[in-house]
Structure prediction request, 421 residues.
Amino acid sequence: MTPTRIYVAIPAMDELHDLPLTLQDLAAQQVRVPFEVHVCVNQPETYWEDDQNRLVCIHNQELLSFLKTYSALPVQVLDYASPGKGWKGKNFGVGWARKMLFENILKSANPEDLIISLDADTRIKQGYLQSIADNFVAHPEWPAIAVPYYHPLTGDEARDRAVLRYEFYMRNYAINLLRIGSPYGFTAIGSAIAMRTSALRKIGGITPLKSGEDFYLMQKMRKMAVVGLYNEECVYPAARYSTRVAFGTGPAMMKGSEGNWDSYPIFAQSCFESIAESYNLLPQLYLQDVHTDFLDFLQVGAKTEVSLWQSIRQNVKDLPHFIQAFHEKADGLRILQFVRRQHKNDHAKESSTLYENLSSWIPETIPSWWNPELPFEQLSLEQMNDIRNLLFHYENELRKKIDDYKYYSYFCSLKNTVFKT
Prediction:
C-alpha cells in the first residue's frame, strides 16, 4: 500500500547549530510522497533556574525563533522549552520528546502513512525519504525498518577514534546476531528508524524512557512482525560527545575517550554459540525440555521452578506458535544480557577478537597491515576507518541478503505475523 504522507519526527535540545543542516537536507529531498516535518524543542523546566543549564534554555529560544521564520519547508513545532512549558518532574528527555512527536503525528495520520524518526544532527541524502517509501511499498509485511547508519568523521582525531571504536562494538554485535539467524539482529538507533503509523498504533506507541527508548520500540515492533533490516539509503548521524542520555553513541564516546570501553566490548563468536544451538533445538524443545547454557539462562531468569517451556507448550497449538512464543521470551534484551555474561570469561585482546571474527567471516578482505596483537589505540585513524568500512559493508550485505532467521517460513504461515496495514 502506497503511503499518502510521510511525517519526519525530530527531537531537538540545544540544536541551533545542527538542526538547520538537517532541515537543509530535508528541503532538498527528491520525493514523490508529500511530507511534513515535526520538531520538538525541549528541555526540563528546572533548567531555567539552573545556572549550569540555563544556556540550553537560551539556545532553545533562539532555535524556536529560527523555526518561526524558517520558510524552506513547513515545520510544525512542539514547544516544550519556553518558560512554563518545559518537562516537569521525572518525565523528560529524548524519550518523552519522541513520544510527544509521535502522538501529535498520530492525531492526523492515516494508517498507510509513515513516520521517519531522525535526530537534529543527522544528515541524509536527497533520495532518503523516497527510498523509505519505496521499501515499505515493496514489503507490506514490515511494520518498521532498522535503517543502516554511518557516522561521518569530523576531523577531530579523538572524537573520530571514539566513534569508530563504538561502531566496532555495534557492528560486531549485529553481525554475530545476523549470522546465527537471530530475529533481533538489528541495531536500534533513534535517528535510523522508520515505521508505519498503523504499526505504532498497534503496539501502543513508544515507551518514553530516558535512554534506550529506540531499542524497546524496535523490540516491540519485532515481536509483532518481521522488521526490515536494509534500505538503499542510510542515515549519517553526527559523532559527538553527549551526556544527555545514559547510554548510546554520545555517552559511549565520552567513556571511550577516557579509555573506558567496558560497556562496549568486542564479543567473540563463542559468546553466541549457545544461542545458535538453542535456535537449532527449538523443534526438539517443543516436544520436551532440553538444556543449553542459553536455555538454562532463560529458565533462571523466569524465576519459577515450573518449566518455562512446558508453560509455553500448554498455551500454543503447534510448533510455529511455540517458536513465536520462544522468541518473545528470548528477546533482544535477554540475548544481550546473556552475551555479556558469556563475555566475562573472555580475556582475549579486543583487537585480536575482532581480527579473528573478520578472518572467519570475510578472510579475503583482511588488510595485510593489520597486526591483531596491536591494540586499537596503536592503529592509525585511517586504519581504524578501514576496519569500520569492512564491518559496514559486510553488515549491509547480511542485512540485504537475509530475509529473516531460519524459521521465517513458520512465522509467515501465521496470520498475526505478516503485518497488514
In short: The two ends are 8 Å apart (CA to CA).
